[in-house]
Write a structure and sequence with these properties.
By secondary structure, the chain is mainly α. It has three helices and no strands. Helices cover 93% and strands 0% of the residues. The radius of gyration is 17 Å and the shape is elongated.
Length: 98
């Protein structure tokens, strides 16, 4: 039963990461691409982490999985915000230069 649950979590996690990669290629501008990457990849990684924790099912793995999930959910929005700010600044400098 644990193998089936782990497989389901891995499958859906990989699916969300695949959707994120497709969004990265298909969306037209930086902001839409960032939205696809940060949202879907974070959720896909969360599902993979949960699947891994269920598979190993020890206290140490659950604690590490929780810490990794918290780290991802704290840093992904910050990285996305920093990229958006630098793009905004770059566009402003481009328009002033011409």
């Amino acid at each position: 039963m644990t193998t089936l649950i782990t497989t389901i979590f891995f499958f859906f996690g990989a699916f969300f990461i695949l959707v994120s990669a497709i969004g990265l290629v298909r969306f037209p501008d930086l902001y839409a691409r960032m939205h696809a990457v940060t949202k879907a990849t974070s959720f896909g990684l969360l599902l993979l982490i949960i699947g891994t924790a269920i598979f190993f099912n020890t206290g140490a793995v659950w604690i590490k999985a929780l810490l990794v999930a918290v780290f991802i959910y704290l840093t992904a929005p910050l990285a996305s915000h920093s990229i958006a700010q630098s793009d905004k600044k770059w566009e402003k400098e481009e328009s002033e230069g011409n």
